[in-house]
Amino acid sequence: MDLSAFPRVALGSWPTPLDDAPGLTAALGGPPVLLKRDDVNGLGAGGNKLRKLEFLLGQALAQGADTIITFGALQTNHGRQTAAACAKLGLRCELVLTAKVPMTGDAYERSGNIVLDHLFGANVHICADADETAAVYEEVNHPGAVTLPVGGSNGLGTLGYVAAAVELVGQLTDRGIGEATIVVPDGSGATAAGIALGTELLGWPGRVHAASVSHTAADARQALEVLCADAAALLGVPAPELAHVTVTDDTVGDGYGVPTPQMWDVLELFARTEGVLLDPVYTGKAAVKFREIAASGDVPVVFLHTGGLPGFYGYAAEAVARFGPA
Ligand SMILES: Cc1ncc(COP(=O)(O)O)c(C=O)c1O
User: Which of the four CATH numbers 3.40.50.12780, 3.40.50.1100, 3.40.50.720, 1.20.1330.10 does domain 49-152 have?
Assistant: First the structure.
């Protein structure tokens, strides 16, 4: 697979670390677990969107774009990383956000990612529903603007995680780890799709587990298949079979962005065994599935940490109630 044919802009430092997690391994009592730290990049507080944005903004710049428009929920990490990348690249950034999550209060509505969006100089538009979102989009769109999908998830964005799969399989091979299970949070889908496609194209012997944080498993699987097929078409290879991929939705709880008790438990487990922070929306819920797989598995389990820490502060009241001073 040749990724060099695609225009790409440097936004992160690669490779990200693949860390042993001895405290977590001991606590779970199963095979060794490892953490792939895609949360620790410098730009805009880091996270998984930087890998997608390297391709998406590379193409936008090649097209001569002056503005990037994208969408998301109020606490979108994708929006925050897009805003940071636009600040670095001198692009105007229009974030068209929709109130999708049943969370209210100052922390959720004004802090966390959203204050950082403003800090990075993005124009932030908060919309009540799909009609208002469409109307605002029409207002801000113009020739010279490039529109990125929710989460940066399209075939081109998926290539960022195909590159990540190559990087991760190389790191595992260097450690003498052949078969393993990679657990990935799955929202708009391109992160899991890129890992799924990349590992299949490499003929890697392990498994990929996509833990949905929003959609039903059937919908998430379908989205993942479409993204894989689109990315494969860009690479000029046949759509993958994805027989090594499992998608689940049983750790979503009451809905996208709605905390669950298991999510808070696993946040505490990561913090107290490894000093690693997860977020309540993505990594926290996916880590509930990771914990289950790692506790019962017989091959090493890799948790792909996709970032999202600023979102934690959107849930400050809940976090303080659970972990804060009495
Ligand atoms: C922190 C974090 N992890 C995981 C995801 C899910 O990635 P994807 O949208 O590619 O499925 C997101 C998406 O916004 C995210 O912000």
Answer: 3.40.50.1100
DSSP class of residue 308 equals -
CA of 213 to the centre of ligand 1 (A): 9
Looking at the CA of residue 151, tell me the nearest atom of ligand 1: 9
- What averages of pLDDT result for each successive group of 10 residues across the chain (326 residues)? 94 97 98 98 97 98 98 97 98 95 92 98 97 98 98 98 98 98 98 98 98 98 98 98 98 97 98 98 98 96 98 97 92
Best of 117, 188, 315 to mutate for ligand 1, by most ligand atoms within 8 A of CB?
Answer: 188
Q: Please list the helix, strand and coil fractions of the chain in percent, rounded to the nearest 5, in that order.
A: 50, 15, 35
List, chain by chain if needed, residues with CB within 6 Å of any ligand 1 atom. Answer: 47-48, 77-78, 151, 153, 185-192, 279, 282-283, 306-308
pTM of the model: 0.98
Residue 308 contacts residue 198 (beta carbons within 8 Å): no
- Quick check: do 18-42+154-323 and 49-152 share a fold? yes
What are the backbone angles phi and psi of residue 206, rounded to the nearest 5°? -90, -170
